[in-house]
Each structure stands twice: as C-alpha cells, then as structure tokens.
Specification:
This protein is an alpha+beta fold and 211 residues long. The protein has a domain of 88 residues: RNA-binding S4 domain (Structural Genomics Hypothetical 15.5 Kd Protein In mrcA-pckA Intergenic Region, Chain A, Roll), CATH 3.10.290. It is 39% helix and 8% strand. It has eight helices and five strands. Strands 2-1-3-5-4 form a five-stranded antiparallel sheet, with helices on one face. A hairpin with a 2-residue loop joins strand 1 and strand 2. Helix 2 packs across helix 8. It is elongated. The two termini are 28 Å apart.
Length: 211
C-alpha cells in the first residue's frame, strides 16, 4: 500500500498550520510553523496571495487527509462511505476518520502520533475485543475494547506515550486504563467534540468532491 515517507514537517508548511504529525513534538519551539517558515517549493513568495475557491477547498481536503495519514484513494473511499450515511456528510466523514483503529489507538495514547499508532496496528500489537487486528482502517464500534498485546506491552515508546493520559486525559468518547494498557471506545463522537479539528471546514471538502 502506498504511503508518504517524506519529511512530515514539509506537509505542515504546505498547509500553513500544524497537523501534529509528530505528536507532542510538534509543540516544540523547533517546529517550522512556529518559526513562520515559508511553504515548500520554488519561489513560495510568488504563490502567496488571494486563493480561488477551488484552492481553498483543496487545501482543506489536503490538510484533513494528511492529518489522519491517508492517501487520496483511502480518503476518497472514506468520503464515499460518509456520503451513504444519514445526516451531514461532513460530520459523517469526521466520525468515520475518528473510528479508524489507528486513530483510536492514537487517541488512547498508546502511541504519540497516528503514524506510530498505525505501525503498532500493522505489526499486530493491538487487539480488538481480545482478537488481534492488524488493519489500520478497521472501523471501531461503540463498546469495543482496544488493548496492547504481546511484546508491545514492554515497549518504552508505548509506556512513554501512556504518560500523556495523566497529563491531559483522553477524549470524552474514550475510556483508558493506563495500567492495564486497555481502553474502551464508548461511543461515536459528535462533530463538535473533536476540538482539535475545530478549524477544519469539512463542508468545503464536501463541495470539492461534489463538483
């Protein structure tokens, strides 16, 4: 499966905002966004100016897609699923992205970033309801129990990530037992509950794909 393997800070610079692709390390003063670095590419100053409606819609889509670490086909397939669900397509899109197993593992602080969470899942270190699942796009359902299994329970990276539970807690639709390295996906979130994506204008993404 295709995946982006280049420098992730370049993606944040391209979108002009933090996507937190390195987790808490993005809060460091060394972050290029904090230093107000210009976007990547040739002659970036000549490309700064008023953007067309299409350009604004494209940037919203790219930012959300990159924040969750998806490639275009994966993101488009998720959008198509959201389109077929009752309710607002934009809200459905966010909820489907939040239900991805790699994202839930990240939200439970078993990993410091979605990329690290995806690696844990792909390597078979995560179980759903006691059964090993190695598909990052697996959609978690309310009531499912997620746990770290095998050698990953002794990994320093996992233990260090879990320290964040005591510092900042977890999202309201998730419960975590840091000592047992388990968590429960209590319910699907409401759009307004996903506060770290408050500045994302998902309606613009719907309009982009509707053209």
């Amino acid at each position: 499966m295709a995946r982006y393997i280049g420098p992730v800070c370049r993606l944040c610079r391209a979108e002009g905002k933090k996507l937190f692709l390195k987790g808490d390390r993005c809060r460091s003063d060394k972050c290029p966004i904090n230093k107000k670095r210009l976007p990547p590419g040739k002659a970036p100053k000549t490309r700064i100016g008023k953007k067309s409606e299409y350009a604004l819609q494209l940037r919203e889509k790219q930012a959300l897609k990159r924040a969750y670490g998806l490639m275009e086909r994966q993101f488009r397939n998720t959008f198509e699923k959201a389109l077929g669900l009752p309710g607002k397509t934009g809200d459905n899109l966010i909820i489907l992205l939040e239900r991805r197993l790699d994202n839930v593992v990240y939200r439970m602080h078993f990993a410091v970033s979605r990329a690290q969470a995806r690696q844990l899942v792909n390597h078979g270190h995560i179980a759903v309801n006691g059964k090993r699942v190695n598909i990052a796009s697996y959609l978690v359902r309310p009531g499912d129990t997620i746990s770290v299994i095998g050698a990953a329970r002794k990994m320093d990276a996992v233990r260090a990530a879990l320290e964040e539970v005591q510092k900042s807690g977890v999202m309201p639709w998730i419960e975590v037992n840091a000592d047992e390295m388990t968590g429960r996906y209590v319910m699907n979130p409401q759009r307004q509950d996903v506060t770290d994506l408050a500045d994302v204008k998902e309606q613009m993404i719907v309009e982009l794909y509707s053209k």
